[in-house]
Fold these 2 entries.
Entry 1:
Amino acid sequence: AQSVTQLDSQVPVFEEAPVELRCNYSSSVSVYLFWYVQYPNQGLQLLLKYLSGSTLVKGINGFEAEFNKSQTSFHLRKPSVHISDTAEYFCAVRVSGNTPLVFGKGTRLSVIA
Amino acid sequence: DAGVTQSPTHLIKTRGQQVTLRCSPKSGHDTVSWYQQALGQGPQFIFQYYEEEERQRGNFPDRFSGHQFPNYSSELNVNALLLGDSALYLCASRLAGEGTEAFFGQGTRLTVV
C-alpha cells in the first residue's frame, strides 16, 4: 500500500520569500504524484502532477516540484510567495491502473505581510 | 463545462439518521471517487465507482454505501450517522486511464448533532 508523509503541518513565511513544502511517499511500485491546494471552504485544485519524464514539474501560480526517486520525495517550491498563496496544500500519490489517490495530512502555508 | 458539482453544499443531521450526498462528474469523466475530509486532516478515500460498480473501497464501515448511475453521476449514502461522521465529503471525477488527473467538487459539509 502507498502512503504519503508531509513533514510540516504548518509553514509560516513572509511575503515575497521562497518556500518549500516537503512530501515523502512510500510505494513498492511506480507512482504518479500530485500536489493539490485547498482554499478555505473549497474543494481541491490541482497545482501540478508528475507522471513520467522530466523530474522537474511546473504547475500553476508559479509553483514547481521535483521528483526524486532515490529519496522518494516530491517537494513543492515557489521562489516568491504572495498573500494569496495562503492555503492548505496536499501531496497525493496514485499507482497505475484505475486506482484512487492517497493523500498526506496537508501543510498549512501562511504567508505573512 | 461546469466541472464537478456536489449537492447539497451544507447539511445538518441528527445522530442515527441517514443522509444522501450527490455528485455530478466533469463532462466526459467516467470514474467517481468519494473522500471524507475531517477537520484539519487530509482526504480519506471512501470508495470508487466505475461502470456503475464499486471498484475499490477504503477502510470505511458498511454504513457507507454508494451508487453510480448510467450518466456517471454518483450518490454517497451514510446510514446510522455518528457524530464522528461530521466532515467535508469530497467527490472527485476523472477519466479512467493511466495518469489522468482527478478533478474535485467543492464538497458537502456534513454536520451530525
Note: Chain B has a mean pLDDT of 94.
Entry 2:
Amino acid sequence: GAGVSQSPRYKVAKRGQDVALRCDPISGHVSLFWYQQALGQGPEFLTYFQNEAQLDKSGLPSDRFFAERPEGSVSTLKIQRTQQEDSAVYLCASSLGSRLAQSHQETQYFGPGTRLLVL
Amino acid sequence: QKEVEQNSGPLSVPEGAIASLNCTYSDRGSQSFFWYRQYSGKSPELIMFIYSNGDKEDGRFTAQLNKASQYVSLLIRDSQPSDSATYLCAVNRLRRNTGKLIFGQGTTLQVKP
C-alpha cells in the first residue's frame, strides 16, 4: 500500500496480558516513530528507529514497553503485563530519512493507529 | 509548563469566517513547526510545515512563525464545516539521532454552517 499501515486496528486486553502491535511503514522510509495518544491529548513520542537501529527510546514509559525493527522495515511495539493506564491509541509514523534532508525538517506520515483498551 | 501549548477550545466560527489557531513553545532550540489536522477517530494528517520566520501560504491555509516570541499560528480562510477537526501543533528540535515531534494537546475547531 501507499501509506503506513498498522495492525490490529483494535485490541482489547485483560490486565496483565502481553500485546504486540505491528507497523508497516511506507516503502523506502528509513525513519520510523511510535507515539502514544491518550484521549483528548496530543500524541506523545515513544521511540525512534533509523533503519534497524533504535536511536531514541527516551519516551518509553516503563521497561514493560519494548520496540524492535529487526530488518529495518516492519516494526513491532510490545507491551508486557498491560495495565489500565496503557489504554490509548498507538500511532506509528514514518519519514524518508534522506541523508540530503535534515531530520528536523522531514514530514512524518502517520498510520491509522491501534486502539488499545486494557480491562 | 508543557513544551508546546495550545488552547484546547473548542473554537467555534461561522462558515466562511477566518479561524485563527495559536501555539506557543518553550524550547528556543525548536527548528521546525508542523500543523496536523485530526478528525475524530482518525490519525493526524499534515496540513503545513514552516521553518522560517514569517508567513507561509498554501491555499486557504497560512502558517505564521515568530521565533522571537516562540509563537506559531495557523489561519484558515473561508472556513468550511469540513474543517471541523482537532488541529495539532508539533515542533521538532534540532537534536542528534532523533527527529521526534513534540505535540501540543490540540485545538478543537467547530465550523458552523
Note: The radius of gyration of chain A is 14 Å.
